[in-house]
User: What shape does this take?
Amino acid sequence: MHVLCTAGHVDHGKSTLVRALTGMEPDRYAEERRRGMTIDLGFAWTEVPGAGTVAFVDVPGHERFVATMLAGAGPVPAALFVVAADEGWMPQSGEHADALAAAGVTDGLLVVTRSDLLDPELALDDARAALAARGLGGWPSVAVSARTGTGLDALRGALAALTARLPAPDPDGPVRLWVDRAFTVRGRGPSSPARCAAAPCAPATPWSSTAAPGGHR
Assistant: This one.
């Protein structure tokens, strides 16, 4: 499985894009769906021809949730950077690009959404220049419309090419688990779903920590 994150300004269609690609709902909370704005990390996955299973960590774009964005973007090897054709490069676009560069996420795809509303070329040109200024230049780009489905097949092909060039995990490297979030399960106690990084982990491998009273699963 390959795990990627989204990135980009609030309300530029990151969750809508993930929903169109996977058929899954990344917004887990009723409040998110009611407001139409992601406030916590969302998770979805799909089978991509030529790439196998590709999972997406959908991050919030609002400036108040940059710490949550970093929690989702930090462990991934590549990102889908989303810019809306009808709005172009915006303040949180720059903030998310800076965060990716600081976290060492230097590979990815530039995806211009809402291409059915406006010619995407201006947004593509501005985004390419802004990413390049942060050391993220040369990313392949795709223009899509999640509403009409235009460009989604091209995006799947770009995802297959992206995952093919990502470095394979070092089987002899140290195992690191990145904690995505922490919550309490009634009847079981604290739980912390995590992603394995820096070394391959077998599916469904049980992990536990008893560093804190009561332990974490």
